[in-house]
Design goal:
The chain is α/β, with parallel strands linked by helices. Helix content is 34%, strand content 12%. Strand 4, helix 6 and strand 5 form a beta-alpha-beta unit.
């Protein structure tokens, strides 16, 4: 014990006599300035945001947190979405806080008053689905109960009137992971908001009952990426005001549609964009969910596989990323309580086109969450105004 005390005293004495380095006078800083991260360098976080293991650090408050959920053992076809959070973050390398303004939205979501951070990944079990689903629910519930960052006067959102407890809660953008992750997320949200309306962008219904499904002979196996909404409906986690958009999968027959309606969903097909246009799709979605608490879930396979091939169950004939972004912009101002993007499986990608598309959609989510009304042409800036800005920058 005496030796330890003596050693500690000696170390303290040495440290107290050291002179702090003045990096401002060192060759690098004096000549070139701060050591900044380039788009292709630095630690991997979404858009170079602060990366914090939020589950370990309760001192960090935030308004919006990005959370990776690397789970993919609920798939029926191609696995690999456990690498989705990595691929989405990698696809966001050219994004950053100081360059987040888009002409479409007319804002930079990072400078609107909200504190936005990357909360890292939940270390889910790759061996036990029941355990992994419980881990996701525990992690999401933990972060959902964290106090929000104060001082965000520009945040166009309050969750207090929507929740059972009348308190503000942060919003989480989940990076999947296969679509099964939505079940534990809905369980967590139910504790705060009760049943929520779901806006579901997907090529598939994901409301199928597990009975007779190949391999679904146990209770654990009945929760997968094609059945989770059915399970959620059985648990009264979703309201009867939910809606699909982008559906184009093969079905057993009209009975699948009838069953889907009984689960609580209306349906917009991929072809509806040709027959009715973007504006009508937006109108239908907004009319369906109304002013209820809304959860938005986006499966990347809603996009045509020619533009986003890296997914587990690709379906030909999907929407373009441009069409999808136009629809998302029309949803601003709804009572969103959470968002996710799932089913990115980068092993099937080419030149990161799916990862880049997914990262860009996350930026759309951030802008959507930070915009109260639908952005008008005047708010976005007309062509002449934008050209003048570009001239000024040049």
């Amino acid at each position: 014990m005496k030796t330890s005390i003596l050693y500690a005293t000696l170390i303290a004495g040495v440290l107290s006599n050291q002179t702090p380095l003045d990096v401002a006078e060192e060759p690098w800083t004096k000549t070139y300035g701060p050591q900044i991260d380039l788009p292709f360098t630095g630690p991997l976080s979404f858009a170079h945001l602060p990366y914090i293991r939020c589950l370990d650090d309760g001192s960090q408050t935030f308004n919006i947190g990005l959370l990776g959920l690397p789970f993919d053992t609920g798939v029926s076809y191609r696995p690999g979405a456990r690498f989705g959070p990595y691929a989405i973050r990698s696809g966001s390398r050219r994004q950053r806080e100081l360059r987040g303004y888009t002409m479409a939205w007319g804002i930079n979501p990072y400078v609107q008053g909200a504190k936005i951070i990357d909360c890292g990944d939940v270390p889910v079990s790759p061996f036990d689905n029941a355990l992994a689903i419980d881990q996701i629910e525990a992690a999401y519930t933990t972060l959902l109960q964290r106090p929000v960052a104060v001082g965000g006067e520009g945040v166009p959102y309050t969750s207090a009137p929507l929740g059972k407890d009348g308190k503000e809660h942060p919003r989480i953008i989940s990076l999947g992971g296969d679509h099964t992750i939505v079940l534990p997320i809905l369980r967590s949200l139910h504790k705060v908001y009760g049943p929520v309306s779901v806006i579901h962008f997907d090529a598939h219904l994901d409301t199928w009952p597990p009975f007779g499904y190949p391999g679904a002979s146990t209770v654990q196996a009945q929760s997968n990426h094609g059945t989770f909404f059915w399970v959620a409906a059985q648990e009264n986690l979703i309201s009867n005001t939910s809606i699909h958009a982008g559906i184009r999968c093969k079905l057993m027959g009209i009975e699948d549609i009838e069953h889907d309606t009984s689960v609580g969903f209306e349906l917009i097909t991929t072809d509806d964009i040709d027959d009715y246009g973007v504006a009508e799709i937006i109108r239908r979605i907004r009319a369906r969910v109304g002013d209820s608490p809304v959860y938005l879930s986006l499966d990347i396979d809603v996009v045509d596989p020619g533009l986003a091939p890296a997914t587990g169950t690709p379906e030909a004939g999907g929407w373009t990323t441009r069409e999808l972004k136009r629809i998302i912009r029309g949803l601003a101002g709804l009572n969103f309580v959470g968002v996710d993007l799932v089913e990115v499986a980068p092993s099937y990608d080419h030149a990161e086109i799916t990862g880049v598309a997914a990262a860009d959609l996350i930026h759309e989510f951030l802008s959507m969450l930070m915009t109260s009304p639908i952005p008008s042409k005047g708010e976005r800036g007309d062509k002449e105004h934008v050209q003048n800005i570009m001239k000024d920058e040049l």
